[in-house]
Each structure stands twice: as structure tokens, then as C-alpha cells.
Amino acid sequence: MKHFGSAMMIAAGLLALGAIAPAGAQSNVTVGYIEMEKVFNGADAKKAGEDKVNNLAKTLTDREGLLKDAAFLPPKTWLEYRGLLEKEKPEGADTTSLTTIKGQITALDTELKTLQQTTPALTDAQKARLNELNGNATANTGNLQQVDADYAAQISKLQLDLRGSIIKEIQTAAAQVMKNKSISVVLNKQAAAGDDGQLLVVAGGVDMTDDVLKQVNANHK
After folding, report:
1. How many CB atoms lie within 10 A of CB 29?
2. I need a labelling partner for 177 at 20 to 30 A (CA). Which of 15, 62, 71, 160 fits?
């Protein structure tokens, strides 16, 4: 899974940190530039962020697997089970309820296998019960689709939050390096394709990339 997109797309127009000097003062302007993608990809915060996203994705995938295994529960019980699984630290009555529901899941699995093995010699009562269990599974299919959407949204939000945090760290570091080197304006060296109007460096200027990356990682410690 590719959790972090191109930094060039994330930070379009990001690093115009200084204003170009007014007419008549242009001779004192020093332009610096950053290879934004290199800084973004080299940031320690990005590596740490990817670990957070991957850990969340694994947690949610494992939880969704448990909910799929519980598909034959009555929908009301299934929703209760979801709520209990999503509690950060279930304890007391919640722990008891989880144990009870897990026991129900095991019993339903055994019952379903028995009914399936008995087919086609089922009694009317057994047929009704099998239909009931299949009805639960059908209803919980919709619930599972909602879970999938909710969990995908959680991962997406974490990605966006982490991107925004990294961008702020880069801005802070760029401002520090900019001040230390007495640079007036900082540009992105290369804009993403299709970013009309994006400032970019064609030639000249002071390359701040390595210094900004170093500062980003120093600030992050």
C-alpha cells in the first residue's frame, strides 16, 4: 500500500516563504530553492508516519477480519460486537460481553456447519434456522461495507494529518535555514506536472535542499 503520495503534489506552492523585494530593491534579493520531494522523502517524520499508518491499517484489517467471522450473529449483536472491538481498552462489563459474544460466534459456526452437513435432509425447523442465519449474514454484509468505508476514512485522515505535520516541519526548517543563509526567497526547484503558475527554479539560486533536510530531522528529534 502506498501511503504517502508525491511531495511535489502535496506541497504545490508551499515554499514561497519570503516575499520578493519591491522594485528598486531587487539587487539585495537572494533566491534559494529546495528539492521538495527529496526533503519530504528523506524526513525522519515521513518514515515514522508510514509506520503509524501501516500499524493502523493492520489493526483495522485484523478487526475487520474478526467482524467478518461474526457475520452470522444477529445484526444487533454484531453492532454491539463492533463497538466493543473498537474500544481502546475494554474492561469490566465490556470484557464480559466480548467473551459472551465470542462464545456465541463459536457456537454459531458449529451450528452452521452441522446444518450444512445435514442438507438436504433438513427438517422444517432446521431450514428456518438456516434461513435465519443466512439472513443475518446478508444484513451484516451491509454493515461490513460500512466498516470498510469507515476504516478507509480513518487511514486517509491519518495520512493527511501526517502529511500536514511534515509540511509544517519543512516550512519551519526552511525558514530557519533561510534566515541563517540570509536568503530572501525560497522556491520549489521543480513543480509537479500541470501546476500552472507554480514557481520553480530553472537556473541559478542557492540549493538549500540538504541543509533543510538536515534541519528538519534535527528539529524532529
Report:
1. 14
2. 160
Number of residues that this document lists for the chain: 221
Spatial neighbors of 126 by CB under 8 A, at least 6 apart, are 115, 118
pLDDT digits (tens, 9 = 90+) for 184-197: 888 887 654 445 55
Measuring CA to CA, which residue among 74, 71, 35, 26 is closest to residue 206?
A: 35
Sign of CA dihedral 204, 205, 206, 210: negative
How does pLDDT run across 11-61, given as a tens digit for each residue? Answer: 333 343 333 334 444 557 888 989 888 999 999 999 999 999 999 999 999
